[in-house]
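DM from R.C. (forwarded with permission)

"hey, sorry to bug you on a friday — could you get me a structure for this? deadline for the figure draft is monday and I only need the backbone to look sensible"
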Amino acid sequence: MIIDERFLVGIRNVCNKMAWLNEGDMRNQFGDYTSAEVHCIEYIGKNEDSNVTRLAEAFLMTRGAISKMSKKLIKKGAIECYQKPDNKKEVYFRLSPKGNAVFELHENLHSQFLERDQEVYESITEEQYSAMIHFISEYEKHLDAEIKKKGLEIKS
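My reply, with the result:
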């Protein structure tokens, strides 16, 4: 099967429009937090023992960029550093009460976005949904292999 470029352009357009549509609500709700910072807070809230390396892998960013962002989040009072008693070398992050408030607000916003778009989700059959999930999974595996060929590594 040959994929028409319209399909890939369509995926890109949907992602861009979703981000653009959601951006206003995100900005209104989070004020001085960037989208990347909010998603970093989300990751830390959902993943125990988050550290610079794990965040860099998850966001496809350098450890230096994550380190810089985490310092800003610490300064804003959203995250805290900690170490495990048996490993004083590794530094981990957890949400502060302020970070938990941002996390909860973000989760609520995502629920609102899902509810807003529910009519589209309901119009898709289980078979269509399964086919889309299968395609995305296969495409992601292909991209992971291409990334590996270039000597890069992503841990999913």
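R.C.: lifesaver. Residues 1-31 form one domain.
me: no worries. The longest strand covers residues 87-95.
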